[in-house]
Write a structure and sequence with these properties.
The chain is 23% helix and 24% strand. It has helices at residues 38-51, 63-71, 142-148, 151-157, 171-176, 181-191, 226-239; strands at residues 15-18, 25-28, 53-56, 93-97, 122-129, 137-141, 161-164, 195-198, 200-202, 209-211, 218-221, 246-249, 256-260, 264-268, 277-284. The protein has a 7-stranded mixed β-sheet with strand order 1-2-3-13-5-15-4, with helices on one face. Strands 12-6-14 form a 3-stranded antiparallel β-sheet. A 3-stranded antiparallel β-sheet has the order 8-7-11. The structure holds succinic acid. Succinic acid binds at residues 95, 106, 112, 123, 137, 266, 268, 279, 281. Residues 95, 106, 112, 123, 137, 266, 268, 279, 281 line the site of succinic acid (SIN).
Length: 290
């Protein structure tokens, strides 16, 4: 197959190559700096819904072009996390790690900002500086995980709701590394009270059921004792660790990953201690409860 052809029927503008059977696709023959054509943009949205995470190699994007790319999928000016921001373009978060610098605690499975009432529908991540090795990111399909569970457990889970909070995650530890950390932590607590989301949601585009929990942000299942909730969550979280449900990306400079934040969880591997790493992140869209 030439890089210009799609291995998947239904795409005439994009070269789509599935990455694994359950999640991910590499998209060839597209310059993400030039998205002026609605036909092309519609195929990008279709591919994101179908494959849940898309990978693009050898891209060169200005900050404005990355924001325009995010806008293809949703409004980039909605929920943001606590990362430092780009000087001129506040919707761009900087995921920058230096040898002796801060760590953000993203080495845990999570769906971005699920501790907010309206989490982003997706994220565009663009690599600027990458370690010679290490610093990969993994995604797991939360639809494939749900579909793999026994029907009786699926039915039980569909009744449940879970509490999500940033307090569970690496953010409080990150705040403690900042000079003004106490004030930042206080503000985060005031801005983000714990929220309740259904444990199982239905994807508004594909109609597939999603297991919407993550070890980073899901604190407990409502209506269960702490012991019962921990036992059930521990089992469910362990399902994300099955390689069958995962796609693992080795970053190169100029790689773009776009993911559906409703249908996936992701994990940034923290194994590159002495090497710098810099990615520009733009979250987009705003999930309603569904
Ligand atoms: C994130 O959780 O959005 C960061 C992913 C990464 O650093 O690879």
């Amino acid at each position: 197959m030439s890089k210009l052809e799609s291995a998947v029927p239904g795409y005439t503008r994009l070269g789509v190559e599935p990455y694994t059977p359950n999640i991910g696709a590499t998209i060839n023959n597209v310059d993400l700096a030039d998205l002026g054509d609605e036909g092309l943009r519609a195929e990008l949205r279709k591919a994101l819904a179908e494959f849940q995470v898309l990978f693009f190699r050898r891209q060169t994007l200005t900050p404005e072009q990355q924001i325009a790319l995010a806008r293809v999928f949703g409004d980039p000016d909605k929920a943001k996390a606590f990362f430092p921001r780009h000087d001129k373009h506040k919707v761009i978060e900087l995921i920058e790690t230096q040898p002796a610098g801060h760590r953000y605690g993203v080495d845990q499975w999570h769906s971005d900002i699920s501790f907010s009432a309206n989490p982003p529908t997706g994220t565009v991540l663009y690599s600027k500086i990458v370690p010679a090795s290490g610093g990969d990111t993994l995604w797991a399909s939360a639809t494939a995980v749900f579909e793999s569970l026994p029907r009786s457990l699926q039915i039980y889970l569909e009744e449940l709701e879970a509490v999500h909070s940033f307090e569970n995650s690496g953010w409080p530890n990150y705040f403690s590394q900042l000079e003004d950390g106490e004030a930042v932590y206080r503000k985060a607590r005031a801005d983000y009270l714990p929220v309740v989301h259904p444990v199982v949601r239905t994807h508004p585009v594909t109609g597939r059921k999603i297991l919407f929990i993550s070890p980073n942000f899901t604190d407990r299942i409502k209506g269960l004792s702490r012991q019962q909730s921990d036992a059930l969550l521990t089992f469910l979280f362990s399902q994300f660790q099955k390689p069958e449900f995962q796609a693992r990306l080795r970053w190169e400079e100029g790689t773009v990953a776009i993911w559906d934040n409703r249908a996936t969880v992701h994990y940034a591997v923290n194994d590159y201690d002495y090497q710098p790493r810099l990615l520009h992140r733009v979250t987009f869209g705003e999930d309603r409860s569904f």
